[in-house]
Structures are given as C-alpha cells and as structure tokens.
Write a structure and sequence with these properties.
- By secondary structure, the protein is α+β, with helices and mostly antiparallel strands.
- The longest helix is centred in the N-terminal third of the chain and has 14 residues.
- The chain has two domains: 53 residues; 76 residues, GMP Synthetase, Chain A, domain 3 (2-Layer Sandwich), CATH 3.30.300.160.
- The protein has a three-stranded mixed β-sheet with strand order 1-2-3.
- 22% of the residues are buried.
C-alpha cells in the first residue's frame, strides 16, 4: 500500500485551501462521531465542499495525481482494447497504453486490491490517476455506452 505523502489530515488541507472554515470542520467531525461516515462525505452532504475539493485533497495526501476526465480526451484505441465488462466491474477508465503500461483513472485511491485485479486481468502494469466518482461514471457512459 502507498504511504501518505503529506502528514496533514484532510480537514487541515481543506482549511488551508480556504474550502472550509475551522467551525465547519468541527461541525463535520462532530457529525462523524455520531454516524461513522467518512469526513469527506459529510462535508459534501453539508454543502461545505464539493466532491472535487475532497478528491484533490485526498490525492495530495496520498501522492496520486488527480485527473478531471471532462478535460481529457481518451485514446479510443485504448478503449477498444479493454472490455466494457471489466471497466464496469472494476469501475475504471483506461486512458493510455504505452508498451505494457496501462494508465487508468479510478475513484477510490485506496482500493489496491481492485488495481491488482485489473493488472492480473489485463496482464500488464498499471499506472493510476484519480478522478471523482461522478466524473468516472460519465466517462464510462461516454466511452462504453
């Protein structure tokens, strides 16, 4: 598993970026104790942060690059080379392939098991970028129907 690149917690990163206030973080942490949901999910539900705000901070924490799929044109030859059933099963979008290295976009940066299963299913090395779940869903619809 990857080690965190930044030792700051997501709440601290969101405050530093002026996305939320300390008071909003305190409110969200209090709610988190009650309902055991992820802090990012609570902040989104409260309307204090967007899915993209959370994803950018998470990628900073874990040292993985963020890629907004809306602004990226995927190579259709790569799309044709990866079966739709696999893409839907593992919830990823292939965006590039150079030799035996497939570059994919995922939404769960911590799901190492799924990334390993993609590697095994496609018999190649995998490099990951991260995007929001909504962005990923729209890209899968766009490229795989």
């Amino acid at each position: 598993m990857r080690k965190r690149m930044v030792t700051k917690k997501i709440g601290e990163l969101l405050i530093e970026r002026d996305i939320i206030s300390p008071k909003q973080l305190e409110e969200a942490l209090s709610l988190q104790k009650e309902n055991k949901k992820l802090l990012g999910e609570i902040l989104i539900n409260l309307g204090y942060a967007t899915e993209e705000d959370i994803m950018v901070c998470l990628t900073t924490q874990y040292g993985m690059p963020y890629l907004p799929l809306e602004s990226y044109e995927v190579d259709m030859e790569v799309v044709k080379g990866v079966p739709a059933e696999l893409v839907r099963k593992y919830n990823f979008v292939p965006i590039d392939k150079i030799s035996n290295l497939l570059t994919i976009v995922v939404s769960d940066i911590l799901d190492i098991k799924t990334i390993d299963e993609i590697k095994n299913a496609l018999h190649c090395k995998v490099q990951c970028f991260v995007s929001t779940p909504d962005s990923l869903r729209r890209a899968i619809e766009k490229y795989y129907g």
